[in-house]
Amino acid sequence: MSELSVVERLYFGRDDAERDLADGLLRRGFKETAAYNAVVTGRKTLVIGRKGVGKSAICVRLASEPVPAGGVELVTAADIAGEELRAFELTGLPGDHAKSLLWRYVFAVRAAQYLVGHAEQHGGKPPEAVKALKAFIKANRELFGDPRTSIGFGRWLQGLSGALSLEAFGVRAAVDFAQQAVAMEGDARPAQRLRVLEDGVRLGFTELGCAPAHTFVLLVDQLEQLWSADLESNSLVIGLLLATWYIGSHYGGAVRCTVFLRSDIYDSLTFTEGDKFRSDELRIDWTESDLEDLALRRARASVGSGLTADRLWGEIFPRTVCGQSTLTYLLSHVLPRPRDLIQYLNECQYTAIGNGNRDRIHESDVQLATQRFSQWKLKDLVQEYLVAHPFLERLIPLFQNSGYLVTRAALSHRVDLVVDALHHEFPAYTGSLTPDGIVKTLYEVGFLGVRRGNGIVYVGIPLLPVQPHEDEFHLHPCFREALGATSPTGLDLYDRRVAISIRAQVVSGDVLNFAPHATWAGREHRLLERLARACRSILGHLVHADTVPEEVRNEIRTQVRHILDAADRAHSAEASVDEEQMVLEAATYFHTIAARLRRDGLEGDAGADSLAAGLTAQSTRLVRAVGGGLGSSGEA
Ligand SMILES: Nc1ncnc2c1ncn2[C@@H]1O[C@H](COP(=O)(O)OP(=O)(O)O)[C@@H](O)[C@H]1O
Ligand SMILES: [Mg+2]
């Protein structure tokens, strides 16, 4: 068998942390980011980030390679049996506070189990408090199962409905959490009993003298799988946060809980104690250089540790794509999170192999992969926010087949066309389904960026919301291919038609039948000259039209130059065209741009000397010259 080529070996890994770890790539290709360090040291205990930003990666990494001394326990949705949770909810514990008792109970039992095992590592005779914990776990074995196996949350919930024995702590009465919970308000008994257990655990840590050298870390991840934007799931998450906060102080630093939460979930929560968590919050943010490093690490893990950045981005990948350095191009086409980059890079590799390019990835492979990736991302965006913004899917078509540059006025115009249908379909969201509300949402999900100063800012951390005076927005490059919005204004119609019609005639051989001298002497000659003059006048106007966004000016300039070229070519008899039609098409094109500039408010307050006014004037003159309008000569 022949050896695999470098492109065949290249692999950037799985796009979810759980399987990525199983494949070994997360282990070899893990990047210790600032976020990771903040979690390891316990400086931050509430990790917030979008899908695919690397929350689970930190989690599974910590769980698989525990920080020296101490223990790490992962609590995930998989442990939290949904069915039992629902069943439990039916029988009681309403409210955030009650849900926090539930989580505290889970943490206390896990900590007790950990402590009993951990005491053996300390060696010697276990202190009294640890013996009590051992007895407690033994007495409740039916509820908790074997402490050495990982125990499902569901089992524990069942335990809550049964009797929890606290005799080991010198308390005789059995506790029935669930029964008492029904009548909980004002009844402090379940909370008191929980405290008996918690005090027992705390004493165990104190007598063993664990903290701060040995910390027991609980990691809670994948809550999104339980969340459905209703009061019940909000309570569950808020309860978790309250419990986290509680144990942070209760166990004297011996137990710590770090929660990994999707930002859309966290941002949707409203609760009075919210401000308690500000200093614990960490929002995961990826810089371009971090992502670049991540890509290289992963490529090395598959191709070989000697791989250099220069080889990866110059020999394996093409050096440039669409005139940009490949890395710049790729990074500008992803939302800044590892999952997207991994998917995109793998797709480039996959496309190259599909195209038979085994030794190097070609520019065309990257371009094709970009298209496919863009389509995925559009679907994923809708999916990601299905719960938080279910109307997103309906908004996307507003951006199809038009330019990627959208003004507030243009957006309002488009929203007006669909707003009634949207309100009808999503009555609960009418408040956010206004032009301003839509801009806000589309910015926050990363679909639109906003013009700030000389650049376009896409959503980032810290989040500075769109300001009322900001009114130029750009579709994120990641979605442009899928939406057919790869030019700023989408006003390139003229170019295509003319180019196609000229080429068609050249190909069909019509050029050969062309008798230039017969035509040029007359009216056609003058028409083309007039068209060329109109183009030059507009090009001149463009130089001063500095209230029009630069991208738009560039695009119009390019198009007008094409028209000018076409006119010149027709003049020099390179191609046969219908001059009248050509002039009329150009006039229509100028008219369309002028209308767009006005409608979308692309020109600010340029007044009588505006580019739009100039375009309209040129358009009118050309139509007249052909013989439309008043039939005058067309000269002013
Ligand atoms: N620090 C990192 N180093 C290497 N790979 C990472 C890192 N963070 C995330 N990844 C990778 O990015 C992908 C998405 O991360 P994941 O943790 O599953 O996202 P989340 O849980 O936030 O949705 C996974 O393939 C994961 O292995
Ligand atoms: Mg995850």
Annotate the secondary structure layout:
Elements: H1 6-9, H2 17-23, H3 25-29, H4 34-40, E1 46-49, H5 55-64, E2 70-76, H6 82-91, H7 96-122, H8 128-139, H9 141-144, H10 153-161, E3 164-165, E4 174-175, H11 177-182, H12 189-208, E5 215-221, H13 231-250, E6 255-262, H14 263-268, E7 281-283, H15 288-303, H16 309-316, E8 320-321, E9 324-325, H17 326-332, H18 338-354, H19 363-384, H20 392-395, E10 405-407, H21 408-425, H22 435-444, E11 448-452, E12 455-457, E13 472-475, H23 477-483, H24 493-508, H25 516-520, H26 523-544, H27 550-571, H28 579-599, H29 611-626
Parallel strand pairs: 1-6, 1-7, 2-5, 5-6
Antiparallel strand pairs: 3-4, 8-9, 10-13, 11-12, 11-13
Helix pairs in contact: 6-10, 7-8, 7-12, 7-13, 8-12, 18-19, 19-23, 24-27, 26-27, 26-28, 26-29, 27-28, 28-29
The chain binds adenosine-5'-diphosphate and magnesium ion.
What do you see in this structure?
42% of the residues are buried. The chain is an alpha/beta fold and 636 residues long. Helix 7 crosses helix 8 and helix 8 crosses helix 12. It folds into 4 domains: 264 residues, no CATH class; 94 residues, Helicase, Ruva Protein, domain 3 (Orthogonal Bundle), CATH 1.10.8; 92 residues; 131 residues, no CATH class. Strands 2-5-6-1-7 form a 5-stranded parallel β-sheet, sandwiched between helices. The protein has a 4-stranded antiparallel β-sheet with strand order 10-13-11-12. A two-stranded antiparallel sheet has the order 3-4. It starts with 5 loop residues before the first helix and ends in a 10-residue tail after the last helix. The protein is elongated. It is built from 29 helices and 13 strands. The chain binds adenosine-5'-diphosphate and magnesium ion (MG). Magnesium ion binds next to helix 5.
